[in-house]
């Protein structure tokens, strides 16, 4: 009997009852740190873009995609928080004089920036 393309490329089969099933494995992916932004992107892909999720997963590019999204989102978040704080006059003097006011305002800025990052990077 002629070998199949799967067998010619080094693939093997395992007997499961009366059937021979191919031993399939996913390609190895490098370990990349994935933080909160990457986890949000992963959840979004699983729920709303299943085809893209499974394509990235089967080609072994999911973790690198999530790591890229994490890095891009983190840099955008930090840059926008800094810009918004400067634009709204958030100074170290305000932090020293009225810490509660400073915390309220910086938390407000962080939440607004969080929405921007989600809209521009995570949920696209």
Describe this structure as you would to a colleague.
The protein has one domain. The protein has helices spanning 5-8, 36-48, 50-58, 62-87, 92-97, 99-122, and strands at residues 13-16, 19-22. The protein is rod-shaped and about 80 Å long. Strand 1 (13-16) and strand 2 (19-22) form a beta hairpin. The protein has six helices and two strands, in the order H-E-E-H-H-H-H-H. With 124 residues, the protein is mainly alpha-helical. Helix 2 packs across helix 3 (50-58), helix 2 packs across helix 4 (62-87) and helix 4 (62-87) packs across helix 6 (99-122). The protein has a two-stranded antiparallel sheet. The longest helix is centred in the middle third of the chain and has 26 residues, at 62-87.
Helices and strands in order:
Layout lengths: L4 H4 L4 E4 L2 E4 L13 H13 L1 H9 L3 H26 L4 H6 L1 H24 L2
Antiparallel strand pairs: 1-2
Based on DSSP secondary structure assignment, what is the total number of beta strands?
A: 2
Number of helices: 6
Mean pLDDT: 90
Q: How would you write the strand order of the largest sheet?
A: 1-2
Order of helices and strands: HEEHHHHH
Gyration radius, in Å: 24 Å
What count of structural domains?
A: 1
Low-confidence stretches: none
Q: Percent of residues in helical segments?
A: 55-70%
Distance between the termini: 50 Å
- By secondary-structure content and strand pairing, the structural class works out as mainly alpha
Q: Per the principal axes of the C-alpha atoms, what is the gross shape? A: rod-shaped
Specify the biggest β-sheet: 2 strands, antiparallel
Organism: Vescimonas fastidiosa
Protein name: TnpV protein
InterPro entries: TnpV (IPR026989)
